[in-house]
Amino acid sequence: MKRLIAALLVCGSVAAPAFAALKAGQQAPAFTTQASIGGKVFSYSLADELKKGPVVLYFYPAAFTKGCTIEAHMFADAVDKYKALGATVIGVSADNIDTLNKFSVSECRSKFPVAADQDQSIMKSYDSVLLYKTSYANRVSYVIAPNGNIIYEYSSMDPDKHVSNTLQALEQWSAKQKK
Question: Number of helices (H) and strands (E), helices first, in the chain?
């Protein structure tokens, strides 16, 4: 119960901005983990996804909390726009895979995978651990180019601009690739 209350406070609040340490130009740490899409578990590999195109990697505090649900709906609604830019989306939290199986169907609408990071190794490698509640991920979004370089990062507990900002970054990157 304490975890749920803390998660609700974390995800529903518009807290002071938090800052991701990994910046544009840095190499994105590779990872492989369990993920779920449409309630089906599979092994997700960032390296494999980058072979297909850019990846939008977003961290969120906890499934089924207000802000995280809003953000999942927004990413699900924008999946076709990401696909049009050749990109894929993945969400990462410290939730267990059983919780993410349900979240992937209901809140992500089976449109993109969500990955389990219970030992926080991915969150730590991306410096995306919430500073004031370290058992949760900070709300951070990264856009990663196919060569593994981070081309954009955005950190805000407010879920409202993560989708629009990452789409804009992808559009700008895509325009540069065409020149």
Answer: 6, 7
C-alpha triplet 109, 36, 20: angle, nearest 5°: 90
The tens digit of pLDDT for each residue in 76-108 reads 999 999 999 999 999 999 999 999 999 999 999
Q: What is the DSSP letter of 149?
A: B
Q: What is the pTM of this model?
A: 0.88
Listed by start position, the domains of the chain span 21-178
Distances (CA, A) of 2 to 40, 58, 68, 131: 29, 25, 18, 18
At the second CATH level, the architecture of 21-178 is: 3-Layer(aba) Sandwich (3.40)
Calpha distance 103→38 (Å, rounded):
9
The tokens for 17 are 């901005």
What is the rounded average pLDDT for all residues in the chain? Answer: 89
The least confident of 2-6, 44-48, 68-72, 89-93 is 2-6
Whether 82 and 88 have beta carbons less than 8 Å apart is answered as yes
Catalytic residue among 63, 68, 108, 123: 68
Token representation of residue 83: 């696909």
**Residue 68 bears catalytic tag:** yes
